[in-house]
Amino acid sequence: MDNPSLPENGKKKRWTVEEKAQTVRRYPKDHGGLAYLAKETGSPPGLILGWAKQALEGIEQSFFRERS
């Protein structure tokens, strides 16, 4: 049975950090919804949600500035 989420070579897709970030940035703005974004990017919806959660968990670090 074919698995539509696997590329033709049968190996799992590996997304780059840039691809993940771009997808997460689009998620709240995409008017087509999560399902549309998942289909367009080839990323399962749960994976996109996981990336978004991971990004939000680390958001404090983006505002953190060490004091000398």
What this model shows, in words?
With 68 residues, this protein is mostly helical. The protein has a domain of 43 residues. It is built from four helices and no strands. It is globular, with a radius of gyration of 15 Å.
Low-confidence stretches: none
Oligomer: single chain
* Helical fraction: 40-55%
Largest sheet data = none
Average pLDDT taken over every residue: 81
- Sheet-strand content, in percent, reads under 5%
Number of helices: 4
**How far apart, in Å, are the first and last alpha carbons?**
60 Å
Helix-strand topology string = HHHH
Tell the overall outline. globular
Secondary structure elements and pairings:
Elements: H1 17-26, H2 33-41, H3 45-57, H4 59-63
Keywords:
68 residues, mainly alpha, 4 helices, 54% helix, 0% strand
Task: Report a brief summary of the structure.
The protein is mostly helical.
